[in-house]
Amino acid sequence: xDTFVPLTPEHFDDLEALFNSDAVTRGCFCMWWRQSARExxxxxxxxxxxxxxxxxGEGPPGLLAYRDGRPLAWVQVTPRxxxxxxxxxxxxxxxxxxxxxxxxxxxxxxxxxxxEGRGGGLMTPLAAAACNFAAERGATAVDAxxxxxxxxxxxxxxxxxxxxxxxRAGFRPVEQRTExxxxxxxxxx
Length: 189
What we know:
By secondary structure, the protein is of the alpha+beta class. The protein is 25% helix and 23% strand. The chain has helices spanning 12-19, 37-42, 45-58, 123-136, 163-168; strands at 2-6, 62-67, 70-79, 105-113, 141-144, 172-176, 182-186. Strands 1-2-3-4-5-7-6 form a seven-stranded mixed sheet, sandwiched between helices. It is globular and about 35 Å long.
């Protein structure tokens, strides 16, 4: 049985172990969405790790999934203002429709599922748990910018989510942003 736990400082070592298990995630520490392109290029993997450790100290920026006591997956979910790069045209761009309170719309911006958990449907319950986590903290909506793959995923293709998995979690399409990328939105029932 999988359990979902907010990422707090006492779980940071588990996130680090999870990220170090795959070359795709080494050095990112979910700072891609939080930094400008220039900041990203100028920072080292160690600097990004330490900056993300500070972010975690400010409050949980997402959830870890555990199976049999071991970290298996991660999802980042935060107010959209915390991930400014997510708001760019290549990802989700502006929230649609724009809310009266911009902090009320959150972004489900990044997934990482360890290879032992891939292909088993874990993304859907993890996304649902992340949305409930956001709603408990005042989110009136959660946006995502998943891909609709036309074939087999390669490298880290699905790190923003997969359209079909997010549909099963209750997300609805808002609009197609590129040939493969969609803006989707979840609202509390």
